[in-house]
Amino acid sequence: MEHARDLTLLPKAHLHLHFTGSMRPSTLLELADKYGVRLPDALTAGEPPKLRATDERGWFRFQRLYDAARSCLREPDDIRRLVREAAEEDVRDGSGWLEIQVDPTSYAPLLGGMIPAVEIILDAVDSASRETGLGMRVVIAANRMKHPLDARTLARLAVRYADRGIVGFGLSNDERRGMARDFDRAFAIAREGGLLAAPHVARGRGPALDHVARRVLTVAFAAVCFQPLYHSGRLEDRIGQGPFLVLFLLLLLGLSALCDAVLAAALAGDRTGRPYGPLLRDELRAQLGVGAAICATGVVMALGVAVAGLWALPVFSVPLLLTQMSFHRIAAIRTTYRQTITSLARATEIAGYTPPGHSRRVAALSCAVGRELGLSERELTVLEYAALMHDIGQLSLIDPVPSGATAGLPADEARRIAGLGGEVARQTGVPAEVAVIVERQAEPYRDQPVAARIVRAVNAYDDLVGGSRHPGGSLAALEQLRLGTGHDYQPEVVESLARVLASGGRAGVVPVPPG
User: What's 7-23+73-197's CATH class?
Assistant: First the structure.
């Protein structure tokens, strides 16, 4: 190549820069030292952490690191410094335009509320733009893990400040969670206010194509096994039209269901990284419903094609398509229900009873421990709901618990708060098992269901580590939990928690400092 152009001289625009993600590593270390925040080794080692984006464990590790970095932004001067340095980095790289994306709800608790947080960010962007000569604008992002009503509120707030530098409205967080269509109204509000729609468009390898291929293979397996035998006449010659034909059909249905379950478990294992055994067990349980219908349809299709020809295929496919649409609607309803519970759980954070993000951290880590212990999918759903709502009883208190940490309370007081939480949970209409777990989370572990044991241990761990109440870091926090395994925490749950944290690498477990 005779001539290579300097990349810094080429015109560039930097779009969709995440707010906390733009922080310089040196700035992060200085702010952490200023506020006494103990950072995971993955943020201090000088090398990018190795994260896997194809499973929930990788996302959980990333979110923990991001939350740790975000916790160092506590004052308006920190916001101004971050924005100014981001602008300087872009100018140095030859960029002429920067759009920085931010979810103000993450910073509102420490900056005086939602509106003050937005105004501080916009003022910082305006000052940095004037000082550096870089064109800068802001994209407000809603969190897809929260209720769509929260997104509508943010969209209206973004429109309100459109003349102050907000140009777009986005949607952030794990694209595998929540349904994008649930946020249609929020984006409609933003578009009507003149803002650009800027959701994450890189959605990864979704399960939809895998799901369709699996269903096709299952129906094809049943049809291929049955149709040649029926068409050749050998089936009737060998077993006739009596009860043996019924037994043969049942055997064929069982083999088809097993084929579908094996394929589904393999695909889910590749997608999530979870153990194959529990996944196969869950899929076999699911075959009692839709799986039996699909396998039976395959047999009927084979019979229909043998009699009526290929015209039978579209005729019998219509019921399958209608069933698929019904299941999608059910899935959307369940997603909305989960978002409602998440929003309800945030009431303790909004009221100042618990630290921001505490319930979500406990829910995510509880589910990881539950999977490690081999809980079924339904048990994991109940566990997640209970973990999200485990602190809801604190809303009944006149005086908040310091830092919202219930793990260090006297046993009677902890049980009283848990009982209040169980009463609140029952009034929300959640499954009865959820209310029982919330109610019994403070009891000795021998008297608790498994899910309550998990919630109690994980909540205590997050109280110790997340609240910066344990100077020794997470290894020392785990040792403190181990000291309580005689009465408060089940040993198997604590060890499972340790394995989950250890498998996350240095971001999961912070070593005890020497001495």
Answer: alpha beta
pLDDT digits (tens, 9 = 90+) for 365-380: 898 899 888 888 888 8
Residue 357 contacts residue 105 (beta carbons within 8 Å): no
Confidence of residue 206 (pLDDT cuts 50, 70, 90): very low
According to the model, what pLDDT value does residue 9 have? 65
Residue of 135, 134, 124, 115 lying closest to 73 (CA atoms): 124
Q: Under a CB-based contact definition with an 8 Å cutoff, are residues 394 and 407 in contact? A: no
Query: What is residue 407's DSSP assignment?
Result: T
Class of domain 346-507: mainly alpha
41-49, Cβ contacts within 8 angstroms, sequence gap of 24 or more: 41/506, 41/507, 41/510, 41/511, 42/505, 42/506, 42/507, 43/68, 43/69, 43/507, 45/506, 49/505, 49/506, 49/507
Is residue 87 within 8 A of residue 99, CB to CB? The reply is no
Average of per-residue pLDDT values in the chain: 79
Tokens of 65: 């690191």
Q: Could you give the C-alpha distances from 419 to 274, 394, 397, 424, 426, in angstroms and in order? A: 34, 10, 12, 9, 11
Q: Which amino acid would we find at residue 119?
A: E
Domain with CATH 1.10.3210.10 in the chain: 346-507
- Is 8 buried (19+), middle (13-18) or exposed (0-12) by CB count in 10 A? exposed
427, pLDDT greater than 90: no
Highest mean pLDDT among 75-79, 159-163, 501-505: 75-79
Q: Which of 75-89, 92-106, 169-183 has the lowest mean pLDDT?
A: 169-183
- Calculated CA dihedral for residues 328, 175, 60, 150, nearest 10 degrees: -90
DSSP H helical ranges for 428-467: 432-440, 450-465
